Amino acid sequence: MKAFQLGARTGIESLTATTRPDPVAAPGQAIVAPRLVSLISRDVQILRGTYGGPQPAERIPMSEGVGEVISVGEGVTQVKPGDRVVCGHFATWLDGKFSPTVFGHDIGITHDGWLAEQVALPAASLIRVPDALSDAQVAGLASAGLTAWNALVETSHIKASDLVLCLGTGGVSLAALKLAKTHGARVAITSSSDEKLEIARQLGADITINYRSHPQWAAELMRHTGGAGADIVLETGGVDTMGQSIAAAAVNARIIVIGVSPGQGPAIPDYLAFIAKNLTIQGIANGSRAMFVDLIAAIEANDIQTVVSKTYRFHEAPEAYRYFAAAGHLGKVMIAL
């Protein structure tokens, strides 16, 4: 089979085309032929050597996609050949609360990922995709979409009276925007691009703030809300934005910390406001298979469409990575096999 591997992890140029023997399903496994795969920020970070620990040069990258089961191993009854499936990238987190053990099987990190003509996956972690949903609607859900669901629904218990603040227009923020609107909530979103903010308004954003025009964007949000602030803040900016996230938060707000963006500032720069507002600050790591099942049901029930910036062909994977890394896009960057 054709595949791409990480190589020396010195940058995007390390991504190398290769060929491998077709995988054979072990007991409990299914072999899936990817149809459409989706880039996330850590895919670029891994190639640059800034995410995760040491990786073998032969590791096949990419953590989210949709594909068709082509064979199954001994004892597999959950799926059958011909099923169209997705899989959370923490493949062993099936249900229940988070445990650090989920990092032991992380697709595209500890185990080979989706950027190949075939991938071996644990059958128990696979989810059959409803016929009504297109590949594009589900290929980019396993990371950003599932994380947004966990943040809003499972962790923050979103309700219609909430104002959700999304930092930037990355994958988690756009997924959260769409999910929050299906729950009747209002959404505020930030960006350095007026063009991206206009698209966000078309997607349903109620408040848009250009953080280059308004470096003190928390104060601008407070102006828009009459001093009330945001009930849920999706903190995707990293350590250096935490101070403004606290300043933008309403009393009793939930600040959900997502991702591992570096920074120079202290973890909680305004300790007094953190206490005075009775804030909850919680980190999350993606989500479980059970959460993914609920997310897919919500996508189907509300006919939520994925915003796709650009789709590349398989042999163009390095170009897709470069386009994604330039960060000029809005929406998912995908690779079709």
From TrEMBL:
Parts forming coiled coils: none
Annotated Pfam families: ADH_N, ADH_zinc_N
SUPFAM superfamilies found in the cross-reference section: GroES-like, NAD(P)-binding Rossmann-fold domains
Entry superkingdom: Bacteria
InterPro entries xrefs: ADH-like_C (IPR013149), ADH-like_N (IPR013154), ER (IPR020843), GroES-like_sf (IPR011032), NAD(P)-bd_dom_sf (IPR036291), Zinc_ADH-like (IPR052711)
Enoyl reductase (ER) domain span: 11-335
Protein name: NAD(P)-dependent alcohol dehydrogenase
Native source species: Luteimonas fraxinea
